[in-house]
Design goal:
Rossmann fold, single chain, about 260 residues, alpha/beta, 11 helices, binds zinc ion
């Protein structure tokens, strides 16, 4: 029997209303509805640049490469800081207000979950955060807007104001390890949630895509909302083919009515 969209929303709302520790896992699909290109595909960037130039090795070893990477990523970061959350982001923030959010683990680097109102300490950005630049020596973070202002002033290579260390856009580059503490805490939270909601991810990029699997191994139910197939469709308790910004607010609103 094929269930209608209304039935699926109703079933998802039932799960949300009866769950207490909900882990939300988000991918590019959540942010494309805010007008941002799929950063994994990096449509906007990889049509103009070779991904092989964007490795951590090139960044650390070659000053010309470093400048190119900084310039391109600063541009992308600036676009992101100007983007606004969409109803999908706000629906997730609503889960925190309801006291049900166990964490948001995201593959996105745009900071839109925090902008929508999710507490900073509840967001785990597996691939970093392109709204900031970080000093590789002392870890001081600078907003990307500030770095872009420095670059406009013809500063050849921005350096840390605290220790003169090398600054790197805070997104994970190719060949670079995912931030260990973020990955560890994401895994811990996924294993201890009772419901995992995947939004806008095809679940094909690892190790990020392990997160929903850990949740299921820990006994959690799984809801997947995505346009197009994902690698865990057959394992989902509820699979909704829809835009996250449309389906998620409906589910949350309906779940609140049931509480
Ligand atoms: Zn520093």
């Amino acid at each position: 029997m094929v269930e209608s969209m209304e039935q699926l929303i109703e079933q998802a709302a039932d799960l949300v209303s009866t769950s207490e520790q909900i882990l939300v896992f988000t991918g590019a699909g959540v942010s494309t509805e805010s007008g941002l290109p799929d950063f994994r595909g990096l449509d906007g960037i990889w049509s103009k640049h070779d991904p092989k130039d964007f490795t951590i090795d090139r960044f650390l070893s070659d000053s010309q490469d470093r400048k190119l990477i900084c310039n391109v990523l600063a541009g992308a970061g600036l676009t992101m800081t100007q983007a606004q959350p969409n109803p999908g982001h706000y629906a997730i923030a609503e889960l925190e207000k309801m006291g049900k959010l166990h964490g948001v683990v995201t593959q996105n680097v745009d900071g839109l979950h925090q902008k929508a109102g999710v507490s900073e300490n509840m967001v785990f950005q597996l691939h970093g955060d392109l709204s900031h630049t970080r000093c590789l020596s002392c870890n001081t973070r600078y907003p990307m807007e500030e770095i872009v202002e420095w670059m406009k002033e013809d500063i050849d290579e921005p350096e840390c104001g605290q220790c003169k260390g090398m600054l790197k856009p805070d997104a994970v580059l190719f060949g670079e390890q995912l931030p260990f503490d973020v990955l560890t805490e994401s895994e811990r939270r996924s294993r201890s949630c009772d419901l995992c909601i995947v939004l806008g991810s095809t679940l094909s990029v690892y190790p990020a895509a392990h997160i929903p699997r850990y949740a299921q191994q820990g006994g959690a139910k799984l809801i997947i909302i995505n346009m197009g197939p994902t690698e865990m469709d057959s394992m989902a308790d509820i699979r909704i083919e829809a835009k996250t910004g449309e389906a998620t607010p409906k589910i949350i609103a309906r779940a609140k009515e049931k509480m």
